[in-house]
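Annual report, structural modelling task.

Input specification for the iron/sulfur cluster complex:
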Amino acid sequence: MAEPVLELDELTVKFHLKRGELKAVDGVSLKVRRGETFGLVGESGSGKSVTARTIMRLLPNPPAEIAGGRVVYEGRDIYDLDEREMRALRGREIAMVFQEPMSALNPVFTVATQIGDVLRTNLGMSKAEARERTVELLSMVGIPSPHSRIDSFVHEFSGGMRQRVMLAMALSCDPKFLIADEPTTALDVTIQATILELIGRMIEEKGMSLLFITHNLGVVAHACDTIGVMYASHLVELADKEEIFSNPQHPYTLGLLNSIPRLDQQQRYLTPITGTVCNMIDPPRGCKFHPRCAHAMDVCRQTVPEFREIAPGHFSACHLNDMR
Ligand code: SF4
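The model returned the following structure:
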């Protein structure tokens, strides 16, 4: 088994807000190995994007606080690095694709300027070299007529093309690790499929590791080797993709699977998960999923279930595991 490139060890992130303290990530541990594609799945508000931004050290402190745990990249705790070392890590080692390119890219600069700046700052390229490389990158991600489109502004591209520009920028310095935070959520399904196929091809060609964040289990079914399921700041299940789809153990994972159309099963109706994600400033005691769980028992309302290995490589946090 390849060695881990990225390791989260009991990571805990809090936000100090006027209304109170919000624990957005609570004791999350996971490993992403070299060349692995890891899907982090869950509803909005589960803590997926906060996890991604914590890895990139993009959370403002205050209000955010790393209240515990470590983020280890290639053997180094990234929270021990100084700003100069962290800047060198971002882009060249770890890059990120955001959900909404319109807010991640700058509307007042052309694509040539924005990608060129990254290349000149991180790789020391001249203006001419950066321009030539930007054309190559735009062509690589499938932007037609890259020589002319390079001088366009972001608003002159369609949604799918903007996401390609974002991907070109993320790949510009040949990172070893890519974080894709809901990169296809704002796109229609046909463009979604093209972007997913493009990300998959880039990952394979460049031998990168990928942390893919999404609320859609259907998307990770195609894109990922390993799947971690998050609910209300906790990692509640983790296993390889086949195991998650064929033998899910956590009621929340089952709920997610029952709420998506499956081509491998005859379903007349989809079954949604009842209720909504709990108030994270005042979460319920015990298992945070218990108000929505059809299997909830007394112990679930009192005690947080332990996240433990229930079969080789398959982890789950549920009191039902103690009864199997
Ligand atoms: Fe449901 Fe209890 Fe398991 Fe939580 S611990 S998912 S409430 S059975």
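Residues 251, 287, 289-290, 293, 295-297, 300, 305, 318-320 surround iron/sulfur cluster (CB under 6 Å).
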